[in-house]
Amino acid sequence: MQFTARDISFLLNGTIEGDASATVNRLAKIEEATEGALSFLANPKYESFLYTTQASVVIVNKDQVLTEPVTATLVRVDNAYSSFAVLLEKYNSIKLNKIGIEQPSFIHPTAKVGEDAYIGAFAYIGPNVTMGDNCKIYPNCFIADNVTLGNNVTLFPGVTIYFDCELGNNVIIHSGTIIGADGFGFAPQPDGSYQKIAQIGNVVIEDDVEIGSNTTVDRATMGSTIIRKGVKLDNLIQIAHNVEIGINTVVAAQTGISGSTKIGERVILGGQVGVVGHINVANGSQVQAQSGISRNIIDEGKKWMGSPATGYSDHMRAQVVINRLPTLEKRIEELEKIIKSLTPALSKGEGDN
């Protein structure tokens, strides 16, 4: 893929300083860029690289003042950082723009595949699957019976979607993730064994959700496990049966959410957070990494930390005390020695009386 500075300026509604015909074919950081690369400058800390970079084209803010000569062609825009993000998205969409059905792959005769689909080699599309337009199903994906995919769904290699699950529009799921495996439902028996409880529900993933690699979202025992619109899930996350995650919530890696818990809207869960089952987490909650949520969070928009989690400010104050414990222990030992040394004198004084 090759673009000129003129193409980039037109796309970003910018102005050009230098050679408008300068061409680029890749993106690079300004401190590492070589000839033929496109880069950007948004952080003043990196301004010195503007005068030494070998990039052919650099995107800068309109108000960027030059203090030395530059060799690169500049494209001036209102916001260099946002503009470069637009280019990254454009670059990525072109790179991933695959169309067609590769062989060998299997598409059941009852499956409905929308327009401009890409289905990679060794993918399996099961009976009664409905797939919208512009879906990208990469090699070795498995889509089971009665699954529904909206428009612009991307499943990267090795994704598994179990039967009856529903995915909305613009959903992206990365490699190795499994949607709709059985929830962890087992009934204890009098003899100490466990009887499996059939998991007959499904998973519903709404529009604009992105799920990282090797994450699992279990199907509901009955009803649906629901991932609401705009949710972003990191890699290596476990979402148990009948969980509901509210709109625009983000969850970092290695977090586990137990069954039937409801996570509110715009919640932030840090890495390795553990959430027990059958509780609610209020809208706007922010839970720091490695915290354990063991009870309902009712108050909206508050920060939590620790295991079991407490209010962020309370936890930090407690941490200050914990850090002082060795000093406090030493002071207590010294006080005990003083008290012990005074005890004979006090006893003798009592005897004299």
| Strand residue content | 25-35%
CATH superfamily of the largest domain: Hexapeptide repeat proteins
Mean pLDDT: 93
Radius of gyration: 29 Å
CATH fold annotation of the largest domain: UDP N-Acetylglucosamine Acyltransferase, domain 1
Question: Would you kindly provide a written description of the structure presented here, covering whatever features stand out?
Answer:
The protein is an alpha/beta fold. It has 3 domains: 3-95, MurE/MurF, N-terminal domain (Udp-n-acetylmuramoylalanyl-d-glutamate--2,6- Diaminopimelate Ligase, Chain: A, domain 1); 100-313, UDP N-Acetylglucosamine Acyltransferase, domain 1; 326-352. It is built from 5 helices and 40 strands. The strands form 6 sheets. The protein has a 12-stranded mixed β-sheet, with helices on one face. The longest helix has 28 residues, at 325-352. The N and C termini lie far apart (102 Å). The mean pLDDT is 93.
Blueprint (SSEs and pairs):
Blueprint: E1 3-4, H1 5-12, E2 15-17, E3 23-24, E4 26-27, E5 37-40, H2 47-50, E6 57-61, E7 73-77, H3 80-95, E8 100-101, E9 106-107, E10 112-113, E11 118-119, E12 124-125, E13 130-131, E14 136-137, E15 142-143, E16 148-149, E17 154-155, E18 160-161, E19 166-167, E20 172-173, E21 178-181, E22 186-188, E23 194-196, E24 202-205, E25 210-211, E26 216-218, E27 224-227, E28 232-233, E29 238-239, E30 244-245, E31 250-251, E32 256-257, E33 262-263, E34 268-269, E35 274-275, E36 280-281, E37 286-287, E38 292-293, E39 303-305, E40 310-311, H4 312-323, H5 325-352
Parallel strand pairs: 4-5, 5-6, 6-7, 8-11, 9-12, 10-13, 11-14, 12-15, 13-16, 14-17, 15-18, 16-19, 17-20, 18-21, 19-24, 20-25, 21-26, 24-27, 25-28, 26-29, 27-30, 28-31, 29-32, 30-33, 31-34, 32-35, 33-36, 34-37, 35-38, 37-39
Antiparallel strand pairs: 1-3, 2-7, 22-23, 39-40
